Amino acid sequence: MATATRSDIIAMLGPVDDLVVAEIIGMRATVEELAEASSWIANDEALMNIGQPLARGRVSRLVEIIATAKEAEEEEPSMGR
Fold first, then answer.
1. What pairs with residue 3 in β-bridges?
2. I need a labelling partner for 22 at 20 to 30 A (CA). Which of 10, 52, 61, 63 fits?
């Protein structure tokens, strides 16, 4: 399993703060873990409905990081967008 790189993180999450990227890289999260966490963020209800166990360990922490980053992004005033 390959550790997620900056490019992997940006490809999956879109533009995110450098601190978020650094935290994910520092966790040594894999591309697979990042993809699973992204799936939970995108559609947690569907995953629960098919019996997928709740995210645990590093994936759970990634879900927290991604959710917090998305919330912060939504709270920022749009700057010329």
1. 30
2. 52
What is the length of the chain? 81
For every residue of 15-59, DSSP letters joined together read S--HHHHHHHHHTT-BHHHHHHHHHHHHHHHHHHHTTPPPP-HHH
Helix, strand or coil for residue 62? helix
pLDDT tens profile 68-79: 988 888 877 655
pTM value is: 0.76
Of 29, 26, 50, the C-alpha closest to 38 is 29
pLDDT digits (tens, 9 = 90+) for 14-35: 999 999 999 999 999 999 999 9
From 44, 39, 56, 69, select the one nearest 31 (Cα to Cα). 39
